[in-house]
Amino acid sequence: MTVSDNLPWQVAEWEHLMAYVQQDRMPHALLVYGQQGLGKQYLVQRFANFLLCSADDKKNAACGHCPSCLLMQAHTHPDFYFLAPIEPSEIISIEQIRTLLQGLSLTSHFNLYRIIIVNQAHTMNVNAANAFLKYLEEPVERTLIVLITDQYKRLPATIVSRCQKLPVMRPAHNQVLSWLQLQKSDATVDDIKACLSLANNAPYMALTYLSDDTLSLRNACYKEWLAVAKQRQHPVIVAEQWVKLTKATLLAWMISWVIDMTKFYFTAQPLHLFNPDLNNSLQAFAKQLELKELIIFYDLLLISQQRMVTQINNQSIYEEILIAWFNLNSAQKHDS
């Protein structure tokens, strides 16, 4: 797939962007936000290609062969700037912003647009955000700044207020399912559905899960979670193993397991489970655990999710979660 192709679930968003061009009302700054894995960066990149394309006969996409398009394909276009967190810091620093602003002080090379894309804009630290805000407050003609984020509320209100907003909506399940089957024709339908559920219907995240070992890793973690509940594995030992994994993903998995269990308290066959492939196992848990106690455990998971971004030792957080999970199942056995 090239960046001239339209994603089937982004038709409305693309028409919104094209309306800016057709009505000659291009914003100075645009905030594109939505759930992770919806293809926000792809959408914005496609729009940047279109704006920078120098072909006279372009209609709904960049031509792909003019000098400007060739520069974009080579990642050397002088009027295109892309900014994102640098690993392993996972933040956009003041140094990155200063480097960007120094480049923007130079004269534009073409008589088209100058485009700045800031991906994961919410990761700008305080100093970086303040420096960037000063640039936002002084609009430059034929310059478009696009901020992309999946954590919209973490952006400073002063920055948000200076941007026009474009939400990218989550697509219909069947629409994404069909797209994934085309992208991963070698995957089974069951695996596609399982990864799509894990990704909360986010197409690109599901595609990533289908391409790596996410599903098998989730299954391995779930088996360890079961072993702790059945007192066949020590919570501290499992916590020591889990701390090496991606913390955000693992906590999200546990939260999804508890949400699915909760759904079984209200109906025998709930719709829209996060983990449909674990249906029978989760239903069995729901039958043996008290709803009140499960909700208390769910609250602990949510609190732990917030604590993961602090300086608290992550292993101690996992130990607390798994010990609580161990005790919850142990108490139910004694009660019965």
List its salient traits.
single chain; 336 residues; alpha/beta; Rossmann fold; five-stranded parallel sheet; 15 helices; 8% strand
Low-confidence stretches: none
Total domain units: 2
Q: Would you identify the CATH H-level superfamily of the largest domain?
A: P-loop containing nucleotide triphosphate hydrolases
Task: Write down the overall mean pLDDT.
Answer: 89
How large is the count of helical segments? Answer: 15
Distance between the termini: 56 Å
Q: How are the strands of the largest sheet arranged?
A: 2-3-4-1-5
Question: How would you describe what is shown here?
Answer:
The structure is a single chain. This protein is of the alpha/beta class. The protein folds into two domains: 11-167, Rossmann fold, CATH 3.40.50; 213-335, Zinc Finger, Delta Prime, domain 3 (Up-down Bundle). The chain has 15 helices and five strands. A five-stranded parallel sheet has the order 2-3-4-1-5, with helices on both faces. The longest helix is centred in the last third of the chain and has 22 residues, at 314-335.
